[in-house]
Amino acid sequence: MPDLFEPMTLAHGPALKNRLVLAPLTNLQSHPDGTLSDDEFKWLTFRAEGGFALTMTCAAHVQRVGQGFPGQLGVFGDEHVAGLTRLAARIRELGSVAVVQLHHAGMRSPKDLIGEAPRCPSDNAEFGARALSLAEVEQLRDDFIAAAVRAEQAGFQGAELHGAHGYVLAQFLSPEVNQRTDRYGGSVENRARIVHEIIDGVRASTGPDFSLGLRISPERFGLKLGEIVEVARGVLADGKIDYLDLSLWDYAKAPMEEEFQGRSLMSYFAELPRGQVRMGCAGKVMTPADARACLERGMDYVLLGRAAILHHDWPKKLAADPDFKPIAIPVSADHLRAERLGPAFVKYMQTWKGFVAEPETELA
Predict the structure, then answer these.
(1) Are residues 111 and 173 both part of a single domain?
(2) Active-site pick, 167, 251, 268, 301
(3) Residue 251 annotated as catalytic
(4) Could you list the residue range(s) of the whole structural domain that residue 248 is in?
(5) What is the pLDDT of residues 157-206, one digit of tens each?
(6) Are residue 357 and residue 256 in the same domain, yes or no?
(7) Secondary structure letter of residue 352 according to DSSP
(8) What does the buried/exposed string (b/e) look like for 261-300 if buried means 16 or more CB atoms within 10 Å of the residue's CB?
(9) pTM (2 decimals)?
(10) Is the domain of 348 the same as that of 201?
(11) Do 26 and 146 fall into the same domain?
């Protein structure tokens, strides 16, 4: 088992100085046009300064119509390059690997945000989404690839494809959502085709020192665990990505599907042959014991989300004290502001049950 502070090489791009990665986190802080704000710059670079080996942006949308939430970072146009360049340069300067997560919300793009019906692999009445034409699927693929190229030009050292959480790539993988009858629908191989084509395109269009990751969800959103394990097996066997990022919601949880219960959800992926591809997980990794448990159970690295919100310097605190105990939640809004969360991010975290303490009301 590697130590949390053991460096980790990737097949492409720079090595990570430790096994602690900033998870991609929605923070609502970018400008309405998707350009980087000072608040988002401060939030991310403070984590790089705090010792995370890889600093990943929030989900950054690759098409204007793929926006999933207000204040989302964009990577779909040249107008985004100046901010991305500034961000990447500072992350690298602080000794962290700079990575953009590439995203499209698909049917989960709010109509009032994008100004039109959202797009989906198939018509979807629940979300009021319309099916992508074949030409639009090919354009979507090409725009993911173009966004990776744009990120590389801005100085980022890698990109991660967001194939999780019921967003567009997960919608293609879902037999429930994807009802297409062309080459992007039907069999699991067809439903995974767009993921493989994007991986191939990014690899062909970027340099040998540009890393590429893939984030997947193993369940929910109409996904079938057995199928996602096979998709992961295929991607790992191809060896074209550098790391596979498992979004588990809880690293220790059991599968939802009855036929897979009796062992952990993570274990179905940890046992897959992975060659040079690294594998990591996210999901309630809050304490040093949680992080170590992930490595003990077969992960190569861990992604910290809420723990990194609470402590920008979680890695440095652990390096200084192996028994470091993170602050208990709920925390004050002042604590979050001191951790360089801007007003929009603090307000968003106040919607997370039990995370932010209610302000004390003055007695009359």
Answers:
(1) yes
(2) 167
(3) no
(4) 20-326
(5) 999 999 999 999 999 999 999 999 999 999 999 999 999 999 999 999 99
(6) no
(7) S
(8) eeebbbebbbebebeebbbbbbbebbbbebbbbbbeebbb
(9) 0.97
(10) no
(11) yes
